[in-house]
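Internal QA ticket QA-208
Title: Verify multi-chain structure generation after dependency bump
Assignee: T.L.

Test input:
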Amino acid sequence: MGSEKTIAIVLAAGQGTRMRSPIPKMLMPLAERPMVSWAVSAALEAEVDECVVVVGHARERVEAELASRFGDRVRTALQPEQRGTGDAVRCALEAIPETDGRVLIYYGDCPVVTPGVIRRLLDAAEGAELALLVSSLAEPKGYGRILRDAEGNVVGIREERDCSPEERAITEVNPGFYAVDLRFLRDAVRALSSDNAQNELYLTDVVAQAAARGRVRDVHASFELLRGVNDRYELALAEAILLRRTREALMRSGVSMRNPDSIFVSADSVVEPGAELGAGVELRGRSCVRSGAIIDAGSILTDVEVGEGARVLPYTVATKSVIGPRAQVGPFAHLREKTELGPESKIGNFTETKKTVVGARSKVNHLSYVGDGVIGEDVNVGAGTIFCNYDGVKKHTTVLEDGVFIGSDSQLVAPVRVGKGAYVASGTTVTRDVPADALALSRTKQENKEGFASRLRSQRKAQKG
Ligand code: UD1
Ligand code: CA
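Actual output:
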């Protein structure tokens, strides 16, 4: 870039009718980040001097998203009525002082654009009135077509709806990225007319004006870097591109992935080098997987931190929880919000936890419900134990102090505390606190009736016959 100032204008005022979605198009998520934010990040990372986003439809929500993510690095300009991309740029120019400089213009529905391709465009624009990116597409449907003269110079762009049959057959398309001299742009936008199939002011008509004054520079770039998103199919294709990039970067940094195409990593999740992700794993929200941790097949973690060397076995579902270093969870475990597992602790199959702290090396290995619990260190909770935390109105806490042993099939009716090192016999319903080192036992004494079974069987046989 020369000494001239570069201002990015990102157009994001349109409604996105083709999405048929209650969520405004610009806020539709890709890898859980809104479309407009992906688009704007690329300009900021390409180090433009300023960024102006044109807003209109769902203006408040789009502005709130931009403000929360980018703060004062982004300004907005209002387009009161959506009268076309040319009109949107006119609105942006009203918010930009009348100086020399260059503007980079593109559309907010292009979330896959990279800073690299933007830089290429800006470099090509050096000294020219207008430069634009072009792409080749076997199926150019929906895109404006690039018109060239006999020498191969770009002379204009024709929107598909305004194309003749011959023009429609052109496979070179306009992905919608322009670098334009600011003073030229002001005049050019004033001269736009809405004499076209959509009765709109087309930004694309600026290209013919630049061509009439001199050569337009065009830069060929892969469509993978530029694709637009107009419907939910294209949204899925664009998301796939972004996810593929995330996975590639992670694998190159030292993360292992089995069947990488099946793995989802949200934009705000982090995976440290040395971690491993199995097939079909989804890291949602702001999840973090530390070095040496293994997340096995089909596990879905939302806002979960997984400590160093921890193992999450297949088909675990966890939300808003912390899994401590070298802890083991699953297979088929369900960690609900505010579960905090200490180092080397274990949560086994078909166990559900919620709002529970589990101390170091403690185990809840099989078929249990552990809610509103405080579990100390080296505790063993036997198979089929239930923390009865809800009395129909309020939730209550169960405390198991260090070294406690809970026999299988026990119930702990909260609020209740089991003291340090105490035992709870299998099948016990604990309704009162258990002192340290005691044994709690609430089942009735066992009675064996000798020969009872065979007597019963012959009785039944006689009744039948
Ligand atoms: C546009 C281009 C087309 C190009 C394609 C690339 C024009 C006239 N056509 O078509 O040549 O191949 O993008 O993706 O520019 N917007 C506003 N205000 C408006 C209208 C649109 O801010 O009044 C915004 C939209 O929010 C959207 C972008 O501009 O982000 C593009 O609008 P859209 O209607 O999607 O244009 P396309 O038909 O895709
Ligand atoms: Ca579009």
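Spot checks passed. The pocket of uridine-diphosphate-N-acetylglucosamine (ligand 1) is lined by residues 11-14, 54, 79, 82-85, 87-88, 107-109, 143-144, 157, 159, 173-176, 202-204, 228, 230 (CB under 6 Å).
Status: verified.
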